[in-house]
Amino acid sequence: MQHDLILKGDFEQVAYMENYMKNKFKFLGVPKPERAKQTKDFLKESTKLDSATLFGLVSYYYHLEEREYHYLAIDLIQKNYKRLTKDEIQAYIPFVSKHAWWDSVDAWRKVFEEWLLLYPENLKEFANLFLTSDDFWQRRVGINLQLHAKEKTNTKILEKAILFDLETDEFFIQKAIGWSLREYSKTNPDWVAKFINKHTNLSKLAIREGSKYLK
After folding, report:
1. DSSP of 18-30, one letter per residue?
2. CB-neighbour burial class of residue 97 (10 A; exposed 0-12, middle 13-18, buried 19+)
3. Do the beta carbons of residue 127 and residue 161 sit within 8 Å?
4. Can you tell me the distance from the alpha carbon of 138 to that of 131, in angstroms, rounded to the nearest whole number?
5. To 10 degrees, what angle do helices 171-185 and 155-164 make?
6. Low-confidence ranges of the chain (pLDDT < 50)
7. 3-class state of residue 87 by DSSP
8. In angstroms, what CA-CA distances link 15 with 30, 54, 157?
């Protein structure tokens, strides 16, 4: 397998993509659909790699400067997460804090959430790892770790995650709280309504987001 895939960008796309991400990262100018085309065979071949080689490849791309390579690193895990053991998937948690911004953090969250939907017996352990982190980005992952669990949502863990950061003065934390409440309200609106009514110190942002689908 080729281990040094070089993405080919469109210079005319660079300014738009960098501005969209508040100029926090350098871009090559490779929109997602084009990245999918350029990496299709590469990602397919990655399923043949052993876990140690995969980790090294992810680490290599995640330490490159351009943002599209960070996305590629996450794409590699998204393609391979189903076959990873608990210890192997846990090893990727520190990447959440590297080059952290909402786009990469939420992409990593999706990886961990989908792995835990396959192996739900590990939910409590993983939730505690994220929720005890000093990094609010990791705690954002913890809050949204069951975003699409629907009726399988462990409400005790969800409540613990929200209450831990209930009054944290950080937009991306409050947005995450509202996001989780909003999504779960599609499955259990009564629980969400009672939670919002009980915790009067929820931020206006969290309440607005969380009650969007409540009657």
Report:
1. HHHTTT-SB----
2. middle
3. yes
4. 7
5. 160
6. none
7. helix
8. 11, 32, 41
**Contacts for 134-138: CB closer than 8 Å, 24+ residues apart:** 135/96, 135/97, 135/100, 136/165, 136/168, 136/170, 136/172, 136/173, 137/96, 137/97, 137/100, 137/105, 137/172, 138/93, 138/96, 138/97
Residues β-bridged to residue 26: 66
Q: What pTM was computed for the model? A: 0.95
Q: Which two tokens stand for residue 80?
A: 């391979």
123-215: CATH topology is 1.25.40
Q: Give pLDDT, residue 1.
A: 56
Domain ranges of the chain: 123-215
